[in-house]
Amino acid sequence: MTHPPPTPIKEFLKRLGFAQHYNIAIHNRSKELQQTINHNLIAIICIFLISNIAMVSAQESEKAFEFNAAYTGDFGRNFSGGVEQNNAYLGNLDITANFNTENAKLWKGGTFFIYLLNNHGTSLSQYVGDLQGVDNIEADAHTRLYQFWYMQKFGKLSFTIGQHDLNSEFSSSEYGGTFINSSFGIQPDISGNVPISIFPIATLGVILKYEVNNQFSILTAIYDGDPGTQAGNPNSLKWKLADSNGVLNILELQYELKNKTKPGTYKIGAWSHSADNHYGIYAIADQKLLNEKNDPDKGLGFFTQFGIAPQEGSVFDYYASFGLRYSGLFGGRKEDNLGLALGHASMSHHIIEQDPTVDLTGETVIELVYEARINDYITIKPDLQYVINPGATSAVKNSLTGIIRTVLEF
């Protein structure tokens, strides 16, 4: 298999850690399948051991320690269009641990957190050729120390320091989190323009949150400006605090609509990256629209995301999405969710002028997903995505992709 020479957009996105989205050659698929099977067995064994340790620890430490483990497995196929019609499997093992200092009778308001992450499998985006990422657990095959931080609460103020995922606090949508495409989780007007501390590579940061009242909160943070690449920092153990990295600053205002039947959350944020001289603003809304009379947990919700990054040199100059999610559509299955969403990432004029392969103005994804909560431990999520103008190039046809996600939680 031969590959075209790298172009400006590919080189830039490789620096951001998205190399797996472009022309990853598969030299020995049978070997990869065997490696995937081995990883799955290891993951299942790890989950079993961690869950048993968690139960024992919870009983003995009066919940000072809390352990959780989850395994996510995605079987995906690009059915038509894209770069190549082919199958892929992606696996993601999460192991987290909390230590609560107050429950341990040490001091009030303290929490230590550690997050171990293992990823394995084959890229699905390599077959689609998209920019936004059709699968939000796609990453290079590594085991890494993803997050470790300490948070201290002082009444309404909380202070967090350590290796931290920006998207766990900032630029997130509750309803958008139901979907599998990456853009509904972290907006590409941020993640596609500058290196930031998100999955699968987090970096050092300091986060402040002040709860003005029970509805309004102010969050701000500063992160190291370069978490590194997946190849260069495979285990997330390399830190290089250099002036050349710059810093990423972010500020977000959050408002919660306290309505028993139609609650909502509204967010406005701004960010800047000192090394790249990039900046942007964004807005996110989650709003319950309709409720079933007998059960407020059932009903229809709406979400939207919008962000702009007007600085020259941006890959994406704006991003917009909207979607619907209905909870409990069928009978007594109130924890099930049906979702439909559309997201559009607009290419900047700078990229269109500089990269000869980018001859279209943007890439659009439409996603349909059903989340079936089987029991407290198993969730099944069938998913269809139609990607319009993958890679923002006329050389790649529109893609229809399917994914079946299985989540095991302990």
Written account of the structure:
The chain has 410 residues and is mainly β. The protein has a single domain (27-409), classed as Beta Barrel (Porin). It contains five helices and 16 strands. The chain has a 16-stranded antiparallel β-barrel. Strand 11 (295-308) and strand 12 form a beta hairpin. The protein is globular and about 60 Å long. The two termini are 42 Å apart. The model is unreliable at 1-8 and 18-37 (pLDDT under 50).
Strand fraction band?
over 45%
How many discrete domains? 1
Distance between the termini: 42 Å
**Which architecture name does CATH use?**
Beta Barrel
What is the compact description of this entry?
The protein is mostly beta strands. It has a single domain (27-409), classed as Carbohydrate-selective porin OprB (Porin). 13% of the residues lie in helices and 47% in strands.
